[in-house]
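User: I'm new to structure prediction. If I give you an amino acid sequence, what do you actually give back? Let's try with this one:
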Amino acid sequence: MNKEYIQKELRFKAVRSSGAGGQNVNKVATKVVLNFDVPNSSGLTAEEKALLHEKLTTKISQEGILILSCDEDRSQLKNKGIVTQRFWELLSKSMKRPKVRKATKTPRSAQEKRLQSKKKSSEIKANRKKPNF
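Assistant: Good question. You get back a string of structure tokens that encode the predicted 3D arrangement of the chain. For your 133 residues, that looks like this:
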């Protein structure tokens, strides 16, 4: 993953934000939409692209474009910073592979402890019966 190439490939678009905010919302385009073309990226290897498609299927469009947006702040610059930070976090999280679980045997002490508790409970239940004379 080459961050310099990826940074150059990011496309930002300012859109009018929805919701409360009075006249500011009606006049100023503060919402920032980030677009990243995953299949045509030169900063990612083929393996990384496949991994992104696998992990981020809900955020990637049919054309293969990753779309993120932010309208948390009234400042376009702050929203751009937030959405860029979110993009890098998302990219780094999706590139991590989970650790492979190694199967282990149960310890002998745990097996013996289990058998002892079973034996003890069976003795308790056996003592409940009427004695056989």
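You can read the tokens as a compact description of the fold. Here is one thing that stands out. The chain is about 45% helix and 15% strand.
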